[in-house]
């Protein structure tokens, strides 16, 4: 079939070219299907001219909103200098590494990668290399990207059979399944019971400091730190979302718990493709190319690692995030949105709440903030989905089931539009 005969925006054309007419598993498959023509501030506009208030915000990559002028300018300037350097350094990559080391408590060294998934995979590899152990502990419902180790017990329809979890993809090797231990989030007692007997075979624990929209209970992150210290394993924070979102630097500064390694992505590339592992020098230095050929060496390399376009976008973003009051203002905007939506839910007598953490938010049909994946499973997911569908139909862009992001480009007007859309959606 000659697909070029069709309009570029014809969903059937996308369907014939891309599996499901989509760009990946988290594509929005429930709302109206559209292709984005342009974006600005809090808005995206599709190729038919429909405008949406966007809370997807590049899955959290766009903390400043779409097309922030300082970021766009930095990218254009960098594109005029060099868009790519493989095997060489760039001034922007060195400067970004310096700013990350200044900002992130655990960061003595930085190793750049391209995506959050690569950063978590590299962190796990480093943990296995320095400990000489294979097992990894992850929390049920935690998301760490698209690779095999990350894909165990992510979004299963039923609770895990701890410490075993189901993979989210066909094609996961049995050896990987056997390598990943699954524990319920926020449950130190379960961690102790399930992991202590095999702790001398565990390389590390990987955790999102705020797991999806679930906040850590007081003492939980501290408990992970002391468990790792007791048993000689590495604590790895997946800060791909929380990094530079909960506070400048990330969740580790915000909660006052310092991991050994942390994976960052999204915001540090200012919306471009860039990620990193930050951490202890003795661990991250295992990736030093001078070690190549020795048993100590840990391989990290990629054509786009530390890409200068993304580094320039990241630097422009971090400069704005350092402005006094940035994070207070963002949290305040999110509180205003949350209060407004909570009022609509109450007016309609809904057993639902707006879960928040910093500038993250999500509507859940649940009677108290979730503490673990089982709480999310127990929420009324059909009702959650109906509301998200209605928001989409009323011009509010969200991905059903995923947390949402407020940016400084979202104002009370957008919150009012969102509240009205919710009001219309509720019987
Ligand atoms: C917590 C977390 N870790 C890792 C990833 C994977 O990052 P990427 O999509 O850049 O590979 C994501 C992506 O959303 C994430 O939310």
Could you characterize what this model shows?
This protein is an alpha/beta fold and 427 residues long. It has two domains: 3-60 and 326-425, Aspartate Aminotransferase, domain 1 (Alpha-Beta Complex); 70-321, Type I PLP-dependent aspartate aminotransferase-like (Major domain) (Aspartate Aminotransferase, domain 2). Helix content is 35%, strand content 14%. The protein contains 14 helices and 14 strands. The protein has helices at 11-17, 69-81, 91-103, 116-131, 174-177, 188-195, 220-231, 251-255, 281-284, 308-321, 326-347, 373-378, 381-393, 412-425; strands at residues 36-40, 43-46, 51-54, 109-113, 135-139, 180-183, 202-207, 234-238, 261-264, 275-279, 353-357, 360-364, 396-397, 404-405. The strands form three sheets. Strands 4-10-9-8-7-5-6 form a seven-stranded mixed beta sheet, sandwiched between helices. A four-stranded mixed beta sheet has the order 1-2-3-13. Helix 3 (91-103) runs parallel beside helix 10 and helix 11 runs parallel beside helix 14. It is globular, with a radius of gyration of 22 Å. Residues 1-7 have low confidence and may be disordered. Bound molecules: pyridoxal-5'-phosphate.
